[in-house]
Write a structure and sequence with these properties.
Layout (H helix, E strand, L loop, with lengths): L15 H8 L3 H9 L6 E2 L5 E2 L2 H15 L4 H30 L4
Antiparallel strand pairs: 1-2
Amino acid sequence: MKTPGSTRSARGVYGISVAADLVGMGQPTLRLYERKGLVEPERTSGGTRRYSEDDLERLRRIGELVGAGLNLAGVEMVLRLEADNRRLSRDLARARSRQNSRPED
């Protein structure tokens, strides 16, 4: 989940109509993906959706997966597995870095 100001690419700046144009999807599709929990745009105090660059990248990935024939349940699984893979890769890199920085006996 995003935290305000965490990274520039995570800051919500695009309204739904601009986001839909930028990713080549309809606004109802973006709303559907949000309802299904596939994307979580920020909301203004008035409730307006604000999509970030990270959200747009995720929407493009969703579009690729749907285009490859996956249903939304499959898309959700792939996105979760990709996120798990990134996390595990970071963990492994940190573990290797710690191991390499130990003084030899």
